[in-house]
């Protein structure tokens, strides 16, 4: 099975572009990420029967509060790096090509700009961090019983879900709107989708 093309094949035309560096797109994606993070946080908070009163009482233990806050501050950028590396691992598996990583005002990114990736490879690469880290990050939420530490774990999980909003959008597009044979050029913050032109 072929996972990418060196050049855009004849008969393909640009069908859609998602550019996170575009001001309007960046604002929409970040507002969607904020809403998704908030919804996830409150769903987990109330779903696990967490109590603001218990959290407030435990917050009086300054040492535990500082430790949890420090852990959260360290884990957040570490997660961001790992998220992009997982994209990179999957792109590398499918293409063996040079990757590009970066950070803009609106997003962190990993891309494989020198090739056009087929739909199967693109689907795998865009959803991989969401699938992997949803499993890994829900474990502390389930296993930790301290209100402070669980609150930190819930917050990190919520940021993870919100931070995947661009990936989830691309996954949805590729899965439901674009059929087999679609090619994607992923430069990092910008994904361009190409389809065969109807004759």
- Radius of gyration using CA atoms only: 19 Å
Task: Compute the number of helices.
Answer: 6
Shape: elongated
Could you give the order of the helices and strands?
A: EEHHHEEHHHEE
Percent of residues in helices comes to 55-70%
InterPro entries: DUF3267
Keywords: Membrane, Transmembrane, Transmembrane helix
Transmembrane segments: 27-50, 62-80, 100-118, 125-148, 154-176
Protein name: DUF3267 domain-containing protein
Main attributes of the structure:
199 residues; alpha+beta; six-stranded antiparallel beta sheet; 6 helices; 18% strand
Describe this structure in words.
With 199 residues, this protein is an alpha+beta fold. Helices cover 61% and strands 18% of the residues. It contains six helices and six strands. Strands 1, 2, 3, 4, 5 and 6 form a six-stranded antiparallel sheet that branches. Strand 3 and strand 4 (108-118) form a beta hairpin. The longest helix has 34 residues, at 62-95.
């Amino acid at each position: 099975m072929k996972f990418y093309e060196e050049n855009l094949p004849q008969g393909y035309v640009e069908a859609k572009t998602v550019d996170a560096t575009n001001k309007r797109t960046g604002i929409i994606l970040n507002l969607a990420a904020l809403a998704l993070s908030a919804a996830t946080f409150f769903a987990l908070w109330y779903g696990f029967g967490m109590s603001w009163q218990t959290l407030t009482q435990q917050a009086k233990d300054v040492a535990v509060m500082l430790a949890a806050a420090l852990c959260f501050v360290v884990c957040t950028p570490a997660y961001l790096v790992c998220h992009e590396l997982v994209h990179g691992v999957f792109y590398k598996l499918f293409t063996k090509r040079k990757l590009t990583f970066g950070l803009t005002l609106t997003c962190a990114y990993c891309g494989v700009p020198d090739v056009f990736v087929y739909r199967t490879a693109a689907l795998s690469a865009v959803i991989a961090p969401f699938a992997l880290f949803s499993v890994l990050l829900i474990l502390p939420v389930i296993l930790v019983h301290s209100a402070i530490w669980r609150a930190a774990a819930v917050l990190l999980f919520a940021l993870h879900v919100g931070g995947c909003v661009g990936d989830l959008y691309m996954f949805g597009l590729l899965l439901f709107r674009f059929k087999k044979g679609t090619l994607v050029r992923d430069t990092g913050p910008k994904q361009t989708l190409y389809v065969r032109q109807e004759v």
